[in-house]
């Protein structure tokens, strides 16, 4: 199932942890609708801007999968509203700056640089445009490399 021209549902459901631990990581119709919005409003515009492949490292996560990896069961990943990713050949800080300056989003996090990832979420309403950096020292506001 296509969520947008360059993204499929399958790439948002794949999880090695879920496969290893036999955890059901199937999204329901509302979660799929949220993933579609995330793709249309945020991820596809990023793909179109850079014209490069993007790797989704974490998309939808069932509550059981969140528990298994030590994440919150209230994470926007469980609602199909968030994805972690990187753009091939583009520094994550540059991707974050472009998102911050050009798109509507709920939360944007530059995580564990230089070899980390970008976390972005989108909600059908009430997007906060919250920008954070997480490193081994803790969470900071803004994009601090």
Ends: how far apart? 36 Å
Q: Categorize the overall geometry.
A: globular
- Output the helix-strand order: EEHHHEHEHEEEE
Task: Work out the strand percent.
Answer: 15-25%
Strand order of the largest sheet: 3-4-6-5-7-8
**Main beta-sheet annotation:** 6 strands, mixed
Q: What is the share of helical residues?
A: 25-40%
CATH class: Alpha Beta
- CATH architectural designation: 2-Layer Sandwich
Number of structurally distinct domains: 1
Structure annotation, total helices: 5
Q: Count the beta strands.
A: 8
Given helix and strand content, the structural type is alpha+beta
Q: Name the average pLDDT.
A: 93
Write the layout of secondary structure elements.
Elements (H helix, E strand, L loop, with lengths): L1 E3 L2 E2 H5 L2 H6 L7 H22 L3 E5 L4 H7 L12 E6 L4 H11 L4 E5 L5 E5 L8 E6 L2 E4 L4
Parallel strand pairs: 5-7
Antiparallel strand pairs: 1-2, 3-4, 4-6, 5-6, 7-8
